[in-house]
């Protein structure tokens, strides 16, 4: 069984083939997930992929159709939400409108019969942490959306839960407050040694905050790993496209050598030479080429033997510290799939090296092309119906 040993004093969470169906619609499709004690796990995925539903099942607001949820190795299915001892911040998880900010934050402590003097101390400290010191006497309707969100965060953290579940908690905030709260939240999480599951739409937020990232699609987990795993070693074209910018060049494997060298042909007749195991001739694949891994040069000089595609600059964008070139590489077929995006770091005072319309050559090395299976279809399969499930 997947009972992780509770070594740090934090609380591990394990989901075992967890399903949620509504009539014949599968919202969560038998997911397995293990989040170690004290880890910060971020859940990413497109709208409707099942993120909120998963969090709601852990919190106890939605009953799973099948499967188990283990917290510290204990199945919590029978416990009502308030007995699960989880801190919860949902985007629309309302504050008590008739209570002041202070009393909202104090509420979990009153429920736990913490002595009055200690309550005052802990609430004040928590309000300072979320930069709301001095606003304890206000009512929620007298606060901005972002301030209300921070009160919700303070209320979820004040009783120092072992697990914190958050669904887009910073979504309503401006960029500056958002990034300062990200740092605050991460520091708080480390200090309190709390296990966090954090849903966001923002992949940059996921990369900076998480120890572990889960990408969901169509009710399933598409990939689960460290930020480095997901960015540098995406398992599918979907994950590669979802985590940062990439060029996904689709083609067919024409030859696969024993040593893992692949020859991939693109519909324009161009060719990619790459290395990857597990593919054979005839496979449809997508080669992921990160814009920062491509180099751009003048097309004169001898034709390069491999991974050098000639094209024309279609657009140039300044990024401040870098320049982004869109290079049309499809002959007379300027569709999106035949444009390569190259991100070139600016060197010294150098400005544009190439302009729109210039003929250029885009190059990369074998090791920079990551060969991936095409994206899995969104097939929402109903759970097995035999009796005797958990
Ligand atoms: N009570 C319900 N009845 C029927 N379908 C539901 C119900 N709740 C959620 N769903 C469906 O389940 C799927 C997953 O919803 P969920 O809210 O988990 O998505 P999400 O990943 O959180 O999306 P978003 O990023 O938009 O918040 C959606 O297609 C949604 O319409
Ligand atoms: Mg959601």
Automatic annotation (TrEMBL):
PROSITE patterns (UniProt xref): ABC_TRANSPORTER_1, ABC_TRANSPORTER_2
SMART domains reported for this sequence: AAA (SM00382)
Keyword Lipid metabolism found: no
Keyword Cell membrane included in the entry's annotation: yes
GO cellular component: ATP-binding cassette (ABC) transporter complex
One BP annotation, GO: putrescine transport
Pfam families documented for this protein: ABC_tran, TOBE_2
Annotated ranges, domain ABC transporter: 13-243
Enzyme class: translocase
GO molecular function list: ABC-type polyamine transporter activity; ATP binding; ATP hydrolysis activity
Catalytic activity reported: ATP + H2O + polyamine-[polyamine-binding protein]Side 1 = ADP + phosphate + polyamineSide 2 + [polyamine-binding protein]Side 1
Keywords noted in UniProt: ATP-binding, Cell membrane, Membrane, Nucleotide-binding, Translocase, Transport
InterPro entries attached to this UniProt entry: AAA+_ATPase (IPR003593), ABC_SmlMolc_Importer (IPR050093), ABC_transporter-like_ATP-bd (IPR003439), ABC_transporter-like_CS (IPR017871), Mo/tungstate-bd_C_term_dom (IPR008995), P-loop_NTPase (IPR027417), PotA-like (IPR005893), Transp-assoc_OB_typ2 (IPR013611)
EC number in record: 7.6.2.11
Lineage top rank: taxon: Bacteria
Protein role: Part of the ABC transporter complex PotABCD involved in spermidine/putrescine import. Responsible for energy coupling to the transport system.
Family: Belongs to the ABC transporter superfamily. Spermidine/putrescine importer (TC 3.A.1.11.1) family.
Subunit and interaction comment: The complex is composed of two ATP-binding proteins (PotA), two transmembrane proteins (PotB and PotC) and a solute-binding protein (PotD).
Protein name as it appears in the record: Spermidine/putrescine import ATP-binding protein PotA
Native source organism of the sequence: Chelatococcus asaccharovorans
Gene: potA
